[in-house]
Amino acid sequence: MTGLAARVTAALERSVLPSVIARGGAVRVAAAADGVVTLEVTGSPGAVFPMASRIEAQLRVAVPGITAVRLVVPGEAGSPPGPAVDLAEAARRILDGEVNPVIAAHRGHVTVDGVAGGWIRIRLEGGCQGCSLAEVTVRQGIEPLLRSRLPAMTGLADVTDHEGGTEPFFSPEKR
């Protein structure tokens, strides 16, 4: 294990792992070189991916010299996607495999509407369309997950017509 990997592992054990384990997940250092740390995530995706920005901030403070933190699942290819078609397909796989099963409990579904210039456009459907917590789901759940897994992603845009939602899971009155 390199010096950087050992320092990151120690920082994970001190400040990150207890929270991740309590939420049903696990995380370990898969690679660490040139300031870039790749963490392999197992268990519940909801245990780690929503905390991605917090984990990165804690590691940057604990281990000076870290320039980026990537979260990957076992077997994920380490190379970024190529053209927009690959980025769209990669985003679609992540949404279908990890996000949609979770938001299905709220009668929701998210799809990739398109990709241009690294920007991924998503559309929320079902119980997510018009939901008063849709912005939280996008900004604190979906966006950090996609950013951690898709280095070629520039940004995320929600193109949903939320005003057209007929059965939001959380209506503004429930807020």
Explain what you see:
By secondary structure, the chain is of the alpha/beta class. The chain has two domains: 3-72, 2-Layer Sandwich (GMP Synthetase, Chain A, domain 3), CATH 3.30.300.130; 84-174, Fe-S cluster assembly (FSCA) (GMP Synthetase, Chain A, domain 3). It is built from five helices and six strands; from the N terminus they run αββααβαββαβ. The strands form two sheets. The chain has a three-stranded mixed sheet with strand order 1-2-3. A three-stranded mixed sheet has the order 4-5-6, with helices on one face.
Describe the structure concisely:
This protein has 175 residues and is an alpha/beta fold. It has five helices and six strands, in the order H-E-E-H-H-E-H-E-E-H-E. The strands form two sheets. Strands 1-2-3 form a three-stranded mixed sheet. It has a three-stranded mixed sheet with strand order 4-5-6, with helices on one face.
